[in-house]
Design brief:
Shape: globular
Distance between the termini: 29 Å
Low-confidence stretches: 1-25, 105-124
Order of helices and strands: EEHEHHEHHEHEEHEHHEHEHEHEHEHEHE
Number of helices: 15
Helix content: 25-40%
Strand order of the largest sheet: 4-3-2-5-6-7-8
Amino acid sequence: MKPIRLPEPPGSPKPMGGVPDIFEGGLYGVVRRAVIIGNGFPASENQSMGLVRALGLSDKQTLYRVMRPTGGINEWLHWLPVSIHKKLYFIISQIYGYSKIFISRRGRKLAHLPAGNGAGVGLSSVLEADVKNIVKMAKDTFEKDGPLLVVASGRDTISIASSIKRLASDNVFVVQVQHPRSHLDRFDMVITPQHDYYSLTPQAQEQVPRFLRKWITPREPAGDHVVLTVGALHQIDSAVLRSEANAWHHEFAPLPKPLLVVNIGGPTRYCRYSTDLAKQLIASLYNVLTSCGSVRISFSRRTPEKVSKLIIKELGTHPKIYIWDGEEPNPHLGHLAWADSFIITADSVSMLSEACSTGKPVYVVGAERCTWKLVEFHKKLRERGLVRPFTGLEDMSETWGYPPLNDTAEAASRVHKALAERGWRIRP
């Protein structure tokens, strides 16, 4: 496993004993705490937590969530802005008297956050995101605790984060992770993958009828306060991998080598597939089993049941293969630490980004089924030598590597620089 070295924050090394804050940018210019605005989806919240971790503020982070009503008719209202959704839900619930038929709360549950995603490292209990309360806290505690770093990720968090910036601009530094589609000047910084700007490329322009082009976002190139990454931000670095290697030693150390980890996601808007891809993967896996010591397979929350059932049926009894049953503890971080190579379905930007941060061989299955901006994402990965297509002809004992993808550390470095330009800095 290759070590991943995070870049040092900008600035010269501190002299022994440190320097009082008052001599370095003023007493009120030191950022000591962070607020994360989440949307209940682990993939989004993990990006914000990863950035906060890379900035050294994990032990002083508080998670707020934008809560949407769920279940029943609410599943049809998710395209609405959160504020309108909540008002409409209230009206409907009053009209129908909380009828289970119309407003049943059966639906997706907010996932519990495992230790690897922030719990146990200073994460307080989850609070509902309220602009007025967060703004008041930022202003009232500014003289005592300095500026507040606000990091948000996901569509539902945009209005909350931008409102905090508008109402407390002198007291906060607001980072929006993932492209907010419009009015990027509402934030101090936007961090988003390069492929979110695919709509501006000649290839994309050819795919969109001329009369529709003005409705496709983004419409302008990235500005100075936009940080472009290759993939998604996350919390994986050398320290995490070392810790998880120790935590999972008893389970993974005895396994025959090489260990192949297979992560299976689910179809998305830009990467559609069904059991056809599962059959392709099964056939290819059978071809490489002779060069594997052991295989571990995991499904995501998005994996269709018909896909997981087919894979379990065809591969579940093979002596070299273990399929995670979905029960806690989740072995994902242990897989990242102990795997010798990975096979990952093309739909998951997050899983691919994490695996590519290890410097280990990463094979992709299903990239040919992707469209629009995901085509650009996979092109970037291949150009940098981070991934190879999985064909079923590979010798899995072969080792190859690359400079690990270090998007989170590089984004953190840009945050340090932007804060310095404002006369602020992260606490040493």
